[in-house]
Task: structure prediction
Amino acid sequence: MRSDQLTPGLLGDSQQTSYGDKLNLFNHFAAPELRHLLCEFGLKDGDVVLDAGCGTGVVTGWLLDRVLPTGHVIGLDLAAPHVREAMQHRHQAVQLSYVQADMSSPPFRAPFDLIWCTNAINHLRRRQEGVRALASALRPGGRLVLGQSAFLPDMMFAWDYRFEKEVRSACLRYYHDKYDLDESDTTADRNLLGLLQQAGLRHITAKTVVIERTAPLTWEDERYFVEGVFKAYWGHRLRPYLAAKDWDYLEQLCDPDSPQFCLRRPDFHHIQTLTICSGFA
Result:
C-alpha cells in the first residue's frame, strides 16, 4: 500500500511512526495478565487469527502458541518499523505472517476465527469504521476482541492522591495540546461495548482485569516504569503543566539515583486496568 493511501491516525500515526520500544516494554510488563486472557478465548489447533495493531509482534507470537501446529496467525500494523521488527523475530514460522496496512481497510477478507485488537482502536480517527472493517473479516461465529488500558484512573503514587491527580491532569493537557485533541477525541474509545454493538456483533461481553504491582518489583516491571512511563510518557514534556514544586517532586520520585525514587519505596503500589470486550459475528 502506498504511503499516500494511508491516513494519519488520531495520534498522528502514519506508516513511519514507531512506538516499538514502548510496546515491547508494556507487553513484557503485562505478560502475566495478557497470557492469562489469551487462554480464555478457546483458541485451538487449526484456528486462523488476526492480531490487528500487532505492534512488534510480541502478543502475535503468544497467539500463535495457542493455535499450533496447524493454525495460522496474521499480524497487521500500520507502522513499517513495527512490521520490520516483528518479522525479525518470527523464527521462520510458516504459520505466522505480517502485513503492513491500516486496520480500517485491511487488504484481505480472510475468515478469521478470532481477531485480537488491543490498545489500537484508540489511535483511529474513525473508530466505528475500523471496528466494522474488522468485524467483516470474521467467519460466521468468529469472535472480535477489543482491549483498552486505563479506563479507570491508574494509581502510581498511592501515598499522595493530590499529587497523582496533578500528574494525570498534566498528561491529559500535554496530549490535548500536542495532537490538537478535544475531550471527545480522548474518550470516545471508552465505549467498546457500543462500538461492537454498532458493528452488528452478538453475545457481547466485557471483562476488566487489574494489573497490580507492589514492592519489591521485578527487573522487567522496574524497566517498564522507568523507561516506558517516567521517560517515554512523562519526562520534561510535563514540566510546563505542573507547578514548580510538583515538578521538582516528580523529578525526585522518578530518578533512580534519588533517595526518594518511588520504585524503591516499600509502600510502592501500582494499579492499572485492562478492559476486554468481545462479540461474535
Remarks:
- The longest strand covers residues 202-214.
- The beta strands are 48-52, 72-77, 96-100, 112-118, 138-149, 202-214, 269-280.
- Confidence is low (pLDDT under 50) at residues 1-6.
